[in-house]
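Re: [ENG-882] Designed sequences occasionally contain unexpected residues at chain ends

Forwarding the minimal case from QA. Structure tokens:
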């Protein structure tokens, strides 16, 4: 049973991260002509576009992508409940879906920061992926740099944000576990 649970969770979590990345790209006003952005848009459009006809955006926020993310999280939680417990509780599924959505958003920010840090070490010039990751994370890193400026050419803002995200994840798990 654990093997099936693992596969289901991975499949849903990966697609949920792609949907959340689409939301984040629009929120950050990232370059949508970038190859990574184009992949994200093309991978999510078949499900987001029909939702946009029903759920319009609000104040520059792509509500349809968030609703799709919640639907994916709800489907994941419901399927796992049915497989593991052979029962389904709609209230528990709704609550756990919200928790899953927040948890995956935090995970997404963490992994984007890790990938950005690794790319900064090995990148040989301009990389399109690195440019998008820069656009996504720079609004979070800029306030940290105002407090902790680069020291001797070493930018510690990514490390501080990663530690902060890890703290938030642990706190979140303590609150909702």
């Amino acid at each position: 049973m654990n093997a099936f649970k693992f596969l289901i969770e991975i499949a849903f979590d990966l697609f949920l991260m792609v949907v959340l990345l689409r939301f984040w790209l629009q929120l950050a006003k990232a370059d949508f002509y970038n190859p990574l952005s184009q992949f994200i848009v093309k991978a999510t459009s078949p499900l987001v576009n029909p939702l946009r006809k029903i759920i319009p955006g609000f104040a520059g926020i792509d509500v349809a992508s968030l609703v799709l993310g919640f639907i994916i999280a709800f489907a994941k939680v419901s399927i796992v409940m049915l497989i593991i417990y052979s029962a389904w509780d709609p209230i528990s599924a709704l609550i756990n879906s919200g928790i899953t959505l927040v948890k995956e958003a935090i995970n997404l920010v963490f992994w984007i920061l890790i990938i950005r840090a690794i790319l900064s070490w090995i990148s040989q010039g301009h990389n399109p992926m690195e440019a998008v990751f820069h656009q996504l994370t720079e609004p979070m890193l800029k306030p940290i740099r105002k407090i902790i400026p680069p020291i001797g050419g070493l930018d510690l803002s990514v490390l501080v944000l990663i530690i902060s995200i890890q703290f938030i994840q642990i706190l979140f798990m303590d609150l909702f576990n």
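QA comment: On inspection the terminal residues look reasonable. The chain has one domain: 2-176. Proposing we downgrade this to a documentation issue.
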